[in-house]
Write a structure and sequence with these properties.
Layout lengths: L4 H4 L15 E2 L6 E2 L5 E3 L19 E2 L21 E2 L6 E2 L7 E9 L5 H20 L1 E4 L7 H11 L10 H4 L11 E6 L2 E6 L2 E7 L12 E6 L26 E6 L5 H11 L13 H16 L11 E5 L18 E3 L7 E3 L1 H18 L1 H10 L3 E5 L8 E2 L5 E2 L7 H13 L2 H4 L4
Parallel strand pairs: 7-12, 7-13, 13-14, 14-17
Antiparallel strand pairs: 1-2, 3-4, 3-5, 5-6, 8-11, 9-10, 11-12, 15-16, 18-19
Helix pairs in contact: 2-3, 2-9, 6-8, 7-8
C-alpha cells in the first residue's frame, strides 16, 4: 500500500496547507530522512521501553498505519500520538523539522570561555531585537527542546534577587562533558552513542513585516558543548556530541582573552588592576580550535586546498575586562533605519567590518596563531568582541570571582548575534 507522505506525518487536517520538505535533517544525529519515514512517539504508557533509547520509561517509536480524522497517528493500543521522532536515533524532533529549512550554528570554546552565558544572553536579546528592529519573530517552536537554555535565561534575566551578588556558577552550572540536560545516549547500529541536545528556534516574519502573510519560516539549531568535548581523541564513534560541526552553517569560536597570559598581563599593566577575579588561565585555546577545525575537515571530506565556505565568527569574550586595550572599537548598535519603512532596520555592515578589523589586529598582536588558523580554514572570518554581563566580576569573600546580575551587557552581544545571519539575508528576511 502506498502511504500518503502528508498523512504519514500527521498533516491531514481539512484546513491544512502544509508543504513538506523532500528531505529532513534530524537536529540530534544529523541523519537525513524522507518525511514519510518519520516515527511517532506512542502515547499509551504500556508501550514503554524503546530499545534504542536505552531507558525503561522511553515510549516506543512506531511507524503507524492508522490515523485519526485530524491526521494524528494512532499507536498499537489505540491512543492518539502527538509527538514525532527521528527514524535513525529515535529522539524527538519538532514537527517543524519536516516543513522548514534548518540552519545549524555550532559554538566552540575552552572550559570557562563563556559559551553558555553567550547562548543565554544572545537568545534572550534576539527575542527582543528581532521584532523591534527587523519585524521578525524569534521564538521556541517547542519549549521542551530549550528547557536548559530557558533556565539559563531565567537565572540571568528573571532572577528573583537581581541585585544579589553571586558567582557565575550560581547562575549557570558549568557545562559537564556528558550532562544529562545537554546530551542523550542512544543505540545506533547496536552501539551506544552520545549526542548533543539541540536548542531549536523558529524565525518568521512578524507584525508589520511585508512578508508576514507569506507563511515563510526557518529553524535555527544551536549547540552548547563542554570545552572538554573538543579535546583531541574525544571524537569517536561512541562520542558524537560534536557531530553538528559537520552540518554547521556558521561557526562561533569563543576566544577568551582573560585566559591568554600575554593579554592578561598587558591588561593588568594598563589598567593597574588585578585580573585575579578570572580564575581560569588556559593555554589550550589554540589546541581546541585546531581540533574543532580538523573535525570539520574530516567530517565534511574537505581537502587541504578547500576552505570552509560558511562564516567563522571569532567571538572575543569578556570584553569589559580588556576593552581598554582596543579603545577605538565602537560598541554602538549596528542598526540602520530605513526611510519610509518604519521600525524595520538593516545591519550596518561597515560598522561590523570596522570592529572586526580592529579585533583582528588585536589578535595578530597577542595571539597570531589563532588568526592564522582561522584565516587558513575559512573564506569568511569575522572578529567581534562580546560582554555577556557588561561589567567585569569582582572578588568577593574568600577571593571567589563574583558578578552582578543586573548588568547583562546586551549591547555587546548584538554584533555576533546577527553577523552570520547577514550571510543568509534572503533566507532570514533581513533585507526587508
Amino acid at each position: 500500500m502506498t502511504c500518503n507522505p502528508q498523512k504519514a506525518c500527521g498533516f491531514m487536517a481539512p484546513a491544512s496547507k502544509v508543504t513538506l520538505r523532500q528531505s529532513a535533517t534530524c537536529p540530534n544525529c544529523m541523519g537525513k530522512f524522507a518525511p514519510e519515514d518519520v516515527l511517532w512517539v506512542s502515547s499509551h504508557q504500556s508501550l514503554a521501553g524503546d530499545r534504542r533509547l536505552r531507558r525503561e520509561d522511553a515510549l516506543m517509536r512506531v511507524l503507524p498505519s492508522r490515523f485519526s480524522p485530524e491526521g494524528f497517528a494512532i499507536d498499537p493500543k489505540g491512543v492518539v500520538c502527538k509527538k514525532l521522532a527521528c527514524p535513525n536515533c529515535h529522539l524527538e524532533i519538532p514537527r517543524e523539522v519536516l516543513e522548514s529549512r534548518i540552519k545549524f550554528f555550532s559554538i566552540i570554546g575552552t572550559p570557562g570561555s563563556g559559551k553558555s552565558f553567550l547562548l543565554a544572553c544572545m537568545t534572550h536579546e534576539l527575542r527582543r531585537v528581532m521584532q523591534d528592529k527587523f519585524l521578525l519573530r524569534f521564538f521556541d517552536p517547542d519549549p521542551t527542546f530549550n528547557n536548559a537554555l530557558i533556565q539559563y535565561e531565567n537565572n540571568i534575566f528573571h532572577n528573583p534577587a537581581p541585585d544579589k551578588q553571586c558567582t557565575p556558577d550560581d547562575l549557570i552550572r558549568r557545562t559537564q562533558e556528558l550532562d544529562d540536560s545537554l546530551f542523550n545516549e542512544v543505540l545506533i547500529s547496536d552501539q551506544a552513542v552520545n549526542l548533543a541536545k539541540p536548542f531549536i528556534f523558529q524565525i518568521e516574519p512578524g507584525n508589520g513585516h511585508p512578508r508576514v502573510n507569506n507563511n515563510e519560516h526557518r529553524l535555527i539549531s544551536l549547540y552548547d558543548n563542554s570545552g572538554e568535548s573538543f579535546k583531541t581523541g574525544k571524537d569517536t564513534s561512541e562520542n558524537q556530541v560534536t557531530i553538528h560541526l559537520r552540518e554547521a552553517d556558521a561557526l562561533f569560536y569563543l576566544f577568551d582573552p582573560t585566559q591568554n597570559i600575554r593579554i592578561r598581563k598587558e591588561a593588568e599593566r594598563v589598567q593597574q588592576q588585578s585580573m585575579n577575579s578570572y580564575k581560569n588561565i588556559d593555554d589550550r585555546q589554540e589546541t581546541i580550535l585546531s581540533e574543532a577545525l580538523t573535525r570539520i575537515w574530516r567530517h565534511r571530506g574537505l581537502s587541504a586546498s578547500n576552505k570552509y565556505d560558511c562564516p567563522l565568527i571569532v567571538i572575543l569574550t569578556k570584553w569589559d575586562s580588556w576593552c581598554h586595550l582596543v579603545p577605538d572599537v565602537s560598541m554602538a548598535d549596528p542598526f540602520i533605519s530605513q526611510p519610509g519603512k518604519g521600525a524595520q532596520h538593516l545591519l550596518s555592515i561597515p560598522a561590523i567590518k570596522q570592529a572586526s578589523k580592529e579585533m583582528k589586529k588585536f589578535l595578530e598582536n597577542y595571539a597570531p596563531n589563532i588568526v592564522n588558523a582561522c584565516e587558513n580554514f575559512a573564506q569568511d572570518v569575522i572578529y567581534i568582541p562580546v560582554s555577556s554581563f557588561g561589567s567585569r566580576p569582582t572578588l568577593g569573600p574568600e577571593n571567589k570571582a563574583r558578578s552582578s546580575l543586573v548588568k547583562s551587557g546586551r549591547s555587546g552581544l548584538r554584533c555576533p548575534c546577527f553577523t552570520p545571519w547577514r550571510k543568509q539575508l534572503k533566507t532570514f528576511y533581513l533585507s526587508g
